[in-house]
Amino acid sequence: VQLVESGGGLVQPGGSLRLSCVASGFTFSSSQMSWARQVPGKGLEWVSGFYTDGRTYYADTAKGRFTISRDNAKNTLYLQMNSLKAEDTAVYYCAYEDLVGRINWGQGTQVTVSS
Question: What is the secondary structure of the chain as a DSSP string?
Fold first, then answer.
């Protein structure tokens, strides 16, 4: 299993970023995929994800601003983040939960929201 995130960077408050996660080594199209984030010294927050039945979920902090999507032909998961705030600053991780409940993580991509 390999998950490679990209798309992070420095953005001003109110700006937008789109994160991407290219997956390999498993059947992406039917898999439960998620985005999580972590601020140093704080716990992990699950931001958004797809259940295996295709339903999506969002953390309250992401609702209305973030949109998760996937392109199964490209084995890629996306997170479109709009109206970014300083409190969105974190390392964002792509995650895949396999059939036995193991969670596989990408290396993370840093998102910094600052003026």
Answer: -EEEEE--EEE-TT--EEEEEEEESS-GGGSEEEEEEE-TTS-EEEEEEE-TTS-EEE-TTTTTTEEEEEETTTTEEEEEE-S--GGG-EEEEEEEE-TTS-EEE---EEEEE--
Backbone angles phi, psi at 21, to 5 degrees: -140, 110
pLDDT in tens, 70-103: 999 999 999 999 999 999 999 999 999 998 999 9
What tens digit of pLDDT does each residue of 40-69 get?
Answer: 889 999 999 999 889 999 999 999 999 999
| Euclidean distance between CA atoms 80 and 96, whole angstroms | 18
pLDDT for 40 equals 84
Residue 113 CB neighbour total at 10 angstroms: 20
